[in-house]
UniProtKB/TrEMBL annotation, chain A:
Organism per entry: Cohaesibacter marisflavi
Localization, UniProt: Cell membrane
Entries under InterPro entries matching the protein: BP-dependent_transpt_permease, MetI-like, MetI-like_sf, OppC_N
Sample GO molecular function, one term: dipeptide transmembrane transporter activity
Bilayer-crossing regions: 33-53, 101-128, 148-173, 193-214, 220-241, 262-287
Name of the protein described by the UniProt record: Dipeptide transport system permease protein
Keywords of the record: Cell membrane, Membrane, Peptide transport, Protein transport, Transmembrane, Transmembrane helix, Transport
Secretion signal, residue range per the UniProt entry: none
GO biological process, one term: protein transport
Family: Belongs to the binding-protein-dependent transport system permease family.
From TrEMBL, chain B:
Compartments reported by the entry: Cell membrane
Domain ABC transmembrane type-1: 96-325
Annotated protein name in UniProt: Dipeptide transport system permease protein
Molecular function GO labels: dipeptide transmembrane transporter activity
Swiss-Prot/TrEMBL keywords: Cell membrane, Membrane, Transmembrane, Transmembrane helix, Transport
Family affiliation: Belongs to the binding-protein-dependent transport system permease family.
Organism annotation: Cohaesibacter marisflavi
Record-level GO cellular component terms: plasma membrane
Parts of the chain that traverse the membrane: 12-30, 102-123, 135-160, 198-218, 256-282, 302-328
Length: 302, 335
């Protein structure tokens, strides 16, 4: 008996390895995706070791160095590589610390939206009928509002701040995950392997989470990547509108909001936070394209 | 077709009720008393408080309040701004043409550039043109548009001084709105330079707002075209000796456009979200800026009414897109 279990375990371990190998084969064919992954991993390292990397304290105001241009520009100072903002804070240090906020927000939003979306989608797709109708109509209601507007209004309701902005964005993203999971569950529900598991006495919970869910993961992973980059954009947008992270938090969108009045005098206070957002979002979207090509055979090579 | 329309409209009813519930409860879930909030720091007397509570109907049971709210909606009563004391309905339609003009020009830019770019990229797949279109589309798609707007202002208004920084038209021109669209009104006004002024104010915001839809449309057109170009009927048409341009333009594009039309329709929500940021940055007096201003002024009646009107507009556009989709693609109708 134990031999058999051992055997099954070995086989499944090998097949996991084979799947990963096949995945990497297709993923690495997409050069953009590999580049995106490289940039993203660099950003993660930056965020993890941020306090050891930053040349200055991100909230320290150097009163004798207001609006210093970047080091290579005229009047620049090599101590402040990317220059300083209107109250003399080092922009590079703020950007590095800011990467922590953006990545953290992205992860939290995706986890909340993904977990909630999977549960609701599984329940709706598995049970169907009234439960399905109620869940999907609620999702329709959320989708009827432009996402940024709904997030904005929710933050106005909950009070401005990073945490509330994250909750609002997660709620706004929820329907996409619910719809995807539900559609996948409905396609799988009546397949033979599910019926076989049911006949051998598997409980509903087991059927939903262990039998059906593993076969619905590909579109969810792709959607999660896309939501990750959108969440970073939206949290920056909310910060820019004064509804996300509050000053003096060095969140990229909030930094842009503070820099707005200096745009015609000091281009660097506006340029670099935006470049950071763009590079991060671009890297994640590149990964997302690669994942879609590698995971979704239907779209492969299109 | 008629049954399809009925079914599709019927599906909207629960969503509509849900949306009104969201808007209705929004104002009641706010922390703090809306009347005390309105009174501000000066405080308010007990009689005046009761009077206002009665005026806004806050002294009645919630269900009755919702019923009154709903009947009000059907009479066009979307609440009254607590700041300007004007009906939300009037304010919405006074500002709506500005947003419509901006969004319309943006979507035209997005379609006129996005579709040809996607078609050529698909036809010349793997070429430098394909790579540059796809790269620009991905960058555009990843762009934080509020930053993009600021960059555009720095370069075109600051350094090159080609365009003004904000507003819809220079203050030296004034005329009564006829259509509400500044481009048309300025032409009708017969004032020299008015049209140029309106146009130069519109260029930057509309390009900024067009960026994301353009990228999405180009990507979608390219992948739809690639799919269609691989179909047998396209090969047959080519084998018959039809010219390449004709095959691409007549046979392939018409079928590839079906999903693209849906994509364009779905951009309305994206445009509304984009309008919030674009209008705020360019001080464009439209719905997006109005909502942001109302939120920061805590004019929650406007937020509530505006939210509902925008949601209804999005629902209406989605309905029209769905119906159009049924019209051009008969397979959808008979499900």
């Amino acid at each position: 008996m134990s031999d058999t279990t051992q055997l099954i375990e070995n086989v499944s371990r090998q097949s996991t390895k084979a799947v990963l190998k096949e995945f990497w084969f297709y993923f690495s064919e997409n050069r953009g995706a590999v580049l995106g992954l490289f940039v993203f991993l660099t950003l993660v390292l930056l965020a993890l070791f941020a306090p050891y990397i930053t040349p200055h304290d991100a909230t320290m105001q150097y009163r004798d160095a207001l609006l210093v241009p970047p080091a290579w520009a005229e009047g620049g100072n090599s101590s402040y590589l990317l220059g300083t903002d209107a109250v003399g804070r080092d922009i590079l240090s703020r950007l590095v610390i800011g990467s922590r906020f953006s990545l953290f927000v992205g992860i939290v939003v995706v986890v909340i939206a993904l977990v909630g979306g999977i549960i609701l989608g599984l329940v709706a797709g598995y049970y169907g009928g009234t439960v399905d109708t109620i869940v999907m109509r609620i999702m329709d209601i959320i989708l009827a509002f432009p996402s940024l507007l709904l997030a904005l209004v929710m933050v106005a309701l909950l009070g401005p701040g990073l945490l509330n902005a994250m909750i609002a964005i997660a709620i706004v993203y929820q329907p996409h995950f619910v719809r995807l999971t539900r559609a996948a569950v409905m396609a799988e529900r009546d397949r033979e392997y599910v019926v076989a598991a049911r006949v051998s006495g598997a409980s509903s919970l087991r059927l939903m989470f262990l039998t059906i869910l593993p076969n619905c993961t590909a579109p969810l992973i792709v959607q999660a990547t896309l939501s990750f980059s959108s969440a970073i954009l939206d949290i920056a947008a909310l910060g820019f509108l004064g509804m996300g992270a509050q000053p003096p938090t060095p969140e990229w969108g909030t930094m842009l909001a503070e820099a707005r009045e200096f745009i015609l005098r000091a281009w660097w206070v506006v340029t670099f936070p935006g470049v950071s957002i763009l590079v991060t979002v671009l890297a994640i979207n590149l990964i997302g394209d690669g994942l879609r090509d590698a995971l979704d055979p239907k779209l492969k090579r299109s | 077709m008629f049954g399809f329309i009925l079914r599709r409209v019927g599906m909207l009813i629960p969503t509509f009720i849900g949306v009104t519930l969201v808007a209705f409860f929004f104002i009641r879930l706010l922390p703090g008393d809306p009347i005390l909030l309105l009174a501000g720091e000066r405080g308010i007397s007990a009689e005046r408080y009761a009077e206002l509570q009665h005026a806004f109907g806050f002294d009645q049971p919630v269900l009755i309040q919702y019923f009154h709210y709903l009947t009000g909606l059907f009479h066009g009563d979307f609440g009254m701004s607590m700041v300007t004391r004007r009906p939300v309905w009037d304010e919405f339609f006074a500002l709506f043409p500005a947003t419509l003009e901006l969004s319309f020009v943006a979507i035209v830019i997005a379609v006129v550039i996005g579709i040809p770019a996607g078609v050529i990229a698909a036809v010349k797949r793997g070429s430098i043109f394909d790579y540059s279109v796809m790269t620009s589309a991905l960058v555009g798609y990843s762009m934080p548009i509020f930053w993009w707007a600021l960059l555009a202002i720095i370069v075109f208004s600051g350094w090159l001084e080609w365009t003004p920084v904000s507003g819809r038209i220079s203050v030296m021109y004034f005329f009564e709105p006829v259509t509400g669209f500044m481009l048309i009104d300025s032409l009708l006004s017969d004032q020299a330079g008015a049209f140029e002024s309106a146009f130069s104010h519109l260029v930057l915001p509309s390009i900024v707002l067009a960026t994301i839809p353009m990228a999405v449309i180009a990507r979608q057109t390219r992948s739809a075209m690639l799919e269609v170009l691989g179909e047998d009927y396209v090969r047959t048409a080519r084998a018959k000796g039809l010219r390449r341009v004709r095959v691409v333009g007549m046979h392939a594009l018409r079928n590839a456009l079906i999903p693209v039309v849906t994509t364009i329709g779905l951009q309305v929500g994206v445009l509304m979200a984009g309008a919030i940021l674009t209008e705020t940055i360019f001080s464009w007096p439209g719905i997006g800026k109005w909502m942001v201003d109302s939120i920061s002024r805590r004019d929650y009646q406007v937020v509530q009414g505006g939210l509902l009107m925008i949601a209804m507009m999005v629902m209406l556009v989605n309905l029209v897109v769905d119906l159009l989709y049924g019209l051009i693609n008969p397979r959808i109708r008979h499900r």
